[in-house]
Amino acid sequence: xxxxxxxxxxxxxxxxxxxxxxxxxxxxxxxxxxxxxxxxxxxxxxxxxxxxxxxxxxxxxxxxxxxxxxxxxxxxxxxxxxxxxxxxxxxxxxxxxxxxxxxxxxxxxxxxxxxxxxxxxxxxxxxxxxxxxxxxxxxxxxxxxxxxxxxxxxxxxxxxxxxxxxxxxxxxxxxxxxxxxxxxxxxxxxxxxxxxxxxxxxxxxxxxxxxxxxxxxxxxxxxxxxxxxxxxxxxxxxxxxxxxxxxxxxxxxxxxxxxxxxxxxxxxxxxxxxxxxxxxxxxxxxxxxxxxxxxxxxxxxxxxxxxxxxxxxxxxxxxxxxxxxxxxxxxxxxxxxxxxxxxxxxxxxxxxxxxxxxxxxxxxxxxxxxxxxxxxxxxxxxxxxxx
Length: 387
Hints:
This protein is about 55% helix and about 10% strand. By secondary structure, the protein is an alpha/beta fold. The protein has three domains: about 1-10 and about 195-265, Helicase, Ruva Protein, domain 3; about 25-190, P-loop containing nucleotide triphosphate hydrolases (Rossmann fold, 3-Layer(aba) Sandwich), CATH 3.40.50; about 305-385. The strands form three sheets. A five-stranded parallel sheet has the order 2-3-6-1-7, sandwiched between helices. It has a two-stranded antiparallel sheet with strand order 4-5. This is AAA family ATPase. It comes from Qipengyuania polymorpha.
């Protein structure tokens, strides 16, 4: 993998959120300020929204690492279209409370007793709800009811709602959520990174894994990456992962515009022009057929993911089988050449060796194309699953 070639301690551009790679862009700094203010209030709702891959989970992971676990207890719910009754049960389970799935009253009672015990022990309680755009209006109303728990005049529960942009719209437009809106004490929408933040973001992640100025970057690579990623961190990660992979395969110590453009073209399904092969010398045997490239995946996804995966695997297997046959033939020719080397003029032997080397390069170039397409497909699938 490219981390070995460039001497990194780990992959710096993985798609899964990792708070240890937290980068404080302008918008993330604002979000963290709103979170700090809201947590100091100790009540109501804090709302953070952003596009898929904008860094919401990384931000919250960074926040959790900064909390004093002796003074704050955190529960977390990742929703999947939960209804009102399910919401109460999931909230209870997030705090480690054992409740019956169908006993809503019992779950509410257990949550209230837990919150009172935490308050008496001097601890605040924060409930984090991820993917809040999937919640029903009834589930959101149940959360509002949980915020009513008090011990004397002291609120017992604070909530952080994370969601995609549609949750922001839902919260602002639905009349049924007016009471919840009134309890939102801090709200921020994570914007995309600015063009001048792409280079610092990339360097921040590289330095985290032991970057030692290799590879270098030259030309207009940062504006190309910003334009293609729209400043969304996860998309920057995906592009950079592919760029470094291709750079390692081509043993490049400098990443330039040409390589970045080639990666972007491959990711968008555009054919990449390659230089024509050099003509075979007069006495050299005719070159074997080059392994045909794997068909690019079209932009629109088929309805049957399993069928698409099978087709990709079958195409890859065929490509490798043809390459194996070609390599076997080249080995036989090398053996014959070794036997005749002593009887033939040295110039003719050199010509045949040059032709074989050229054909090996063609096979290697074809293999790189197959591997690139395979990586693109599986990384694209991982991106969809992570989103």
